[in-house]
């Protein structure tokens, strides 16, 4: 039960990132790239302060750290670039579909035991997500934007797989953010520099410090117990939680399609979380 509750809390933090991102970009008028950079830098500062205060030290971590930082940057910037040309629903479907494939692939390569209920849960949850997010006939998916979202999905999948190997979740997350932040700032100097409305910056800081920084640290902490396959299925709930958050906080409409599809996704996640086959 404890693992389930921590997983639910982590998925809620991930979903909150999407609500905060939509509010900062669509409502406050901040560009996706600028929002992502502020989010990454603020998370790095907060995590560095926490690690320094706790006396954990700042270990580089070798080649594993390079993989984690590179995949985090691929996710942050792939996500930002993709949403300039993709419908939000189609983008989420592509992102989490690729994450699912990446993490199940990682589980199989690592010879992780993937019992039948994981496969069944993944199939049920994916069906619900496709039902919820499948684009209409008029929705176009530019190849460049779709490719960028695929890169983001692989990036987040690899970042999550790497998290299973970390011994200190908070320190590892802090180092990932601290090493990725300077790269993000350099990219911002070349391609960013848009409007920085106070509301958008505030939302990006909340996203960076709380739902990204602390949320990602919690994710790294529970990943060894979850395993790659269950972690992949659990993340299929994020778009559903994000849409529910949009209905509550952004006054977005609720539909019967959402209710039915959300039920399927939640059922699939619950099936996959069971320890028995």
TrEMBL record:
GO cellular component: membrane
Localization (cell): Membrane
Keywords recorded for this protein, A-Z: Membrane, Signal, Transmembrane, Transmembrane helix
TM region positions: 35-53, 65-83, 89-109, 116-134, 140-161, 173-191, 197-219, 231-250, 256-273
Domain EamA: 148-273
Organism domain of life: Bacteria
Membrane topology designation: Multi-pass membrane protein
Positions in coiled-coil regions: none
UniProt-recorded name of the protein: EamA-like transporter family protein
PANTHER family: AMINO-ACID METABOLITE EFFLUX PUMP-RELATED, INNER MEMBRANE TRANSPORTER
InterPro entries assigned: AA-Vitamin_Transporters, EamA_dom, EmrE-like
Signal peptide: 1-15
């Amino acid at each position: 039960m404890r693992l389930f509750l921590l997983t639910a809390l982590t998925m809620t933090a991930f979903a909150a990132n999407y609500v905060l991102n939509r509010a900062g970009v669509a409502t406050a008028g901040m560009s996706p790239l600028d929002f992502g950079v502020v989010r990454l830098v603020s998370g790095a500062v907060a995590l560095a302060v926490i690690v320094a205060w706790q006396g954990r030290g700042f270990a580089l971590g070798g080649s594993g750290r390079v993989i984690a930082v590179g995949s985090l940057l691929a996710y942050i910037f792939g996500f930002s670039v993709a949403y300039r040309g993709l419908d939000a629903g189609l983008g989420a479907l592509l992102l989490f579909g690729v994450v699912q494939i990446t993490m199940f692939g990682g589980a199989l390569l690592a010879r992780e035991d993937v019992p039948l209920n994981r496969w069944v849960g993944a199939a049920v949850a994916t069906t619900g997500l496709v039902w919820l997010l499948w684009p209409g006939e008029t929705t176009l998916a530019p190849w460049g934007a779709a490719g960028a979202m695929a890169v983001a999905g692989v990036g987040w999948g690899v970042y999550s797989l790497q998290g299973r190997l970390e011994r200190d979740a908070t320190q590892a997350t802090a180092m990932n953010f601290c090493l990725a932040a300077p790269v993000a700032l350099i990219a911002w100097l070349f391609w960013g520099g848009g409007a920085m409305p106070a509301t958008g910056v505030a939302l990006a800081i909340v996203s960076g410090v709380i739902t990204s920084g602390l949320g990602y640290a919690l994710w790294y902490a529970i990943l060894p117990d979850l395993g790659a396959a269950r972690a992949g299925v659990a993340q299929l709930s994020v778009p559903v939680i994000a849409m529910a958050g949009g209905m509550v906080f952004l006054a977005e409409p609720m539909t019967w399609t959402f209710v039915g599809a959300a039920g399927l996704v939640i059922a699939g996640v619950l099936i996959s979380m069971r320890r028995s086959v």
